[in-house]
Amino acid sequence: MKSDLNRNNVTYYQLEKIRQDFPILKKLIHGKPLCYLDNAATTQKPQAVIDALVEYYSSMNANIHRAVHHLSEASTKAFEDSRKKVKNFINAASEKEIIFTRGTTESINLVANTFGRNKLKEGDEIIISGMEHHSNIVPWQFLRDEKNIKLKVIPLNDKGEIIFEEFEKMITGKTKLVSIVYVSNSLGTINPVERIIETAHRNNIPVLVDAAQAIQHLKIDVQKLDCDFLAFSGHKIYGPTGIGILYGKQNILESLPPFLGGGDMISKVTFEETTYNELPYKFEAGTSNIADAIGLGVALDYVSGIGIDAIAAHEAELLKYATERLMEIPGLKIIGQAENKSSVISFVFDNIHPHDVGTFLDFEGVAIRTGHHCTQPVMLRYNIPATSRASFALYNSREEIDILFNGLKKIIEVFS
Amino acid sequence: MDNELRELYQQVILDHNKSPRNFRKPEHANHSAEGYNPLCGDRIDIYLELENGIVKDIGFQGSGCAISKASASLMSSIIKGKTKKEAEILFNKFHDLITGKLGDEPDIEELGKLAVFAGVREFPARVKCASLAWHTMVSALNEDKKNISTEDASN
Predict the structure, then answer these.
(1) Which residue of A352, A363, A415 is in closest CB contact with B2?
(2) Taking the model in full, what pTM does it have?
(3) Catalytic status, residue A35
(4) Which residues of B touch A370 (CB under 8 A)?
(5) Which residue among A272, A305, A338 closes a domain?
(6) How far apart are the C-alpha atoms of B141 and B87, rounded to whole Å?
(7) What ipTM did this prediction achieve?
(8) Which domain holds residue A405?
(9) pLDDT tens digit string along A353-398?
């Protein structure tokens, strides 16, 4: 990244104004101002998103793609406008490539159930990495057990990076898919997905990118990345829960069977046979989560309004400052020290368990995540039962990192 | 420190966390069970030497938070010398204490040292930390070699 650009962005980053947009940040927890550092679990919502949900149910609620009445037309338009916003946000080639799901987990399961079940046969191989979230492990294990395929795992080095040479060695003529996390939720590692995709494509292997922890931090251009599938969740990028996206290249999506059967995904149904609707509706059976899809569009507008590059620069600054401060604390060890890292810090103490850290910090108003972060294989790899994790978002401040720091110092006193 | 927090992390608990009693595998153990809390990744192994229905020796190993470690440590001190039946009755009382079933002013005398865990009732997310060792102990008593998970039990 260019440092001049960063400096400019940080200078003009209107943090106080941004914080005003998030009503929950005014809340007191145990009498202290909320210091929300659990953003990798879910992000808080700006007023604009909250208002959009209220507005939808107050003045627009109707089912989409169905009726000819005014409300249905209005809600259909708002829903499809939101799809357009998603398309623009990740620079997809067409709206047909944007499928609304419940979240990253459903998106990956969709690919496993359509692409996986349709294109893979016994003996084929799927490559994932050692830092996957359970949602990018378990669907492939289902498939493995059903089709008798092989699941290969790229090992991690001690810093929390994938060992690229091992990945290259793993590829065989039977490898049919690489499914890889862009940014690790427990280590913060940013994986070299461009290189991974390039390497896979040289071997004619499609790639699914789990962007659940990347979409809110990094500029993503699916055409430039050239990924075949990309999955993310709305709630991690300041949107509502229960809504997510699967991006897929049109030609691949066209070639796949539907996922769920029901209304909206059909074009003609008789008791003898059914013809399926065109993309993207083929993959959107049943009434969609209309309100939250619209909310997601508003969240993306909000992020674009600030600018993803400005957000990335602000978060990089927070990560740097937090890493420096945390390293001052005796006995604290940071898990995940990749060269290329997102604004996530996992840490452990020799003699203080993450759960105790979490409870003590809560009384300082600080919300962090403690546990295995749905990445039990990562915990096993580094031989730890759990970590404490602080993760930063566009509204966090240096002062909040100081609050975290002071809280941790207090805990050490109690446990010494 | 906040009062509620002080109530949870009493000095006795901090002491037992720092220097847990019976943190070992007894030489003549003839019963054991493994406890696991998948939510936090905590693991505990409980070893018992049972003779004629009496806990002659008890020890534990594993990793966990201060609450779970102190709970295992205090439990091991209290259970030693008790009959199987007595141990089970204590478990039920302890469970009622930490889940708030004994009310706001629990009968401390009956529970002895275990009363230091009364503060747990204000922290529903931590009930499993305090009860893991006990569930595992009961499983070991009953020669149930199955692994114990906090997710299979009603806390």
Answers:
(1) A363
(2) 0.92
(3) no
(4) 40
(5) A305
(6) 9
(7) 0.85
(8) 3-42+307-415
(9) 999 999 999 999 999 999 888 999 999 999 998 999 999 999 999 9
